[in-house]
TrEMBL record:
Record-linked PANTHER family: IRON-SULFUR CLUSTER ASSEMBLY 1 HOMOLOG, MITOCHONDRIAL (PTHR10072:SF41), IRON-SULFUR CLUSTER ASSEMBLY PROTEIN (PTHR10072)
Transmembrane annotation, as ranges: none
Span of domain Core: 17-116
One GO MF term: 2 iron, 2 sulfur cluster binding
Name of the featured protein: Iron-sulfur cluster assembly accessory protein
GO terms, biological process: iron-sulfur cluster assembly
NCBIfam families according to UniProt: iron-sulfur cluster assembly accessory protein
Family note: Belongs to the HesB/IscA family.
Length: 120
């Protein structure tokens, strides 16, 4: 009987974080409420197109959440949202009028006019 060896490899993160999004996560963690262990990205059902992006503080790990460690803190991705986000890039953009996370999501088939929600 031949012994089978299994090789594992590191899998790429579900979402690519730009340096500015990593810096914003670090800023958020510096101001985080007591007990926060990171921030969590999820895609709740809402908005004109069906799903929206939501980033909130998280106080505990959930079994199926994706975990991305950055120098300034941990980004968790809701386990139920990972399939909608694979291959996405998360950026932080600020200008004179707005500031917020911006997502380049190859899985989005459409979005609403205001850019707050998307369909897959």
């Amino acid at each position: 009987m031949t012994e089978v060896q299994t090789k594992t490899r590191a899998r790429p993160a579900a979402v690519i974080l730009t340096p500015t999004s990593q810096a914003r996560i670090a800023d958020l963690m510096r101001q985080a409420p007591e007990g926060a262990i990171g921030v969590k990205l999820s895609t709740p059902k809402r908005g004109c197109s069906g799903l929206a992006y939501s980033v909130d503080y998280v106080t505990e790990e959930t079994k199926f959440d994706e975990k991305i460690e950055t120098p300034g803190g941990v980004l968790y991705i809701d386990g139920a949202s990972v399939l909608y986000l694979i291959g996405s890039t998360m950026d932080w953009v600020e200008d004179d009028f707005t500031a917020g996370f911006v997502f380049n999501n190859p899985n989005a088939k459409g979005s609403c006019g205001c850019g707050e929600s998307f369909t897959v």
